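Section handout, structural biology tutorial.
Before the tutorial, make sure you can parse a SMILES string by hand: atoms, branches in parentheses, ring closures as digits. In the record below the ligand is S-adenosylmethionine, and the chain has 316 residues. In the tutorial you will relate the predicted structure tokens back to the input. Do not try to memorize them.
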Amino acid sequence: MGAREDMYGLFTSVNEINLTNDQGGQSAKEGTHKKNISTSYDLQARMSKKGILWNWGYHDDQVAKEISARIPGFLDYDTDGFSEELYFAALREVPLGLDDYADKVVLEVGCGLGEGLNFLSRVVEAKSMIGLDLSDQAVKRANASLSRKGLRYVQGDAENLPFEDGEVDVLVNIESAHNYPSLEKFLREVARVLKPGGYLTHVDLYTTQRHTFLKELQEQDLGLEWVLDRDISPQVQAAIHGRLAPDGSFHKALREQRVGAIQRHMAKRVGPEAVGGSFAGYTDSGSTRLLKRMGVLPSQFMPPVDSYRHYVAKKI
Ligand SMILES: C[S@@+](CC[C@H](N)C(=O)[O-])C[C@H]1O[C@@H](n2cnc3c(N)ncnc32)[C@H](O)[C@@H]1O
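Predicted structure of the complex:
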């Protein structure tokens, strides 16, 4: 299967998962979705530059200030800092002090290349931090470049977590759950692996359908008490605008890439979608519309995202 087919598979699956209320009842379909998703992220893991995070980001001046106060010089790395801000914003709402992690086990589900959790390891000193991802290649890269005492990465599935009951104090989940065929299975696993009194902090993009489904799940007895429900769309859109500005990191990365003029032209026009462009109001360029009509590009990359949300839940 080529790169184009891999990406098509991802878009098809993500659209289907987020636009239907079929929440994973059919295991054959679930298997196809997961295969599409892991194959595509394996490919992205092989192609990504070191230090890259895979989320749409977040920007808020106060959060940026708090990060700089906690980690002086944190922008001296080759990122625009927006993706790290999303991680920080997710962790700061967990009702524990940032200095109270010494005896805590932190698990990130859907850790990608591991850079977000590595960033959090600079924010808090936890007893141990474990990142889990479906993509075998992402986990291999994370372990090769980032693992050390107290920080490791494992391959696994959010809907079937390879941990004992009550093993985890804080479970972090950043822009990953829109890939899971069954949000319910994931939340049941979260409740199982969290210690009583432990916390889930979850941020993700939501279609109207998926959000309605989450609200229904929140009414069920999953063993979780929902303590925060915040629409963080404005902060996420601020980061997307920052990235896509002429002097932003999206165009900077394109300028640095050693690719031909046609590839650069295409990436400039098609790429914004991958970093949340349509959610921030960017519309397709003429060339993108043409390629979609010709069937070279999928007619819909991401599902129509209605909001980007932050939830915190406490294990009862
Ligand atoms: C948009 S990326 C976000 C990665 C990371 N959290 C970040 O912000 O950089 C989504 C990640 O979720 C992972 N993922 C998708 N489905 C998964 C599943 N069922 N179990 C675990 N990870 C999954 C993907 O492999 C991918 O690394």
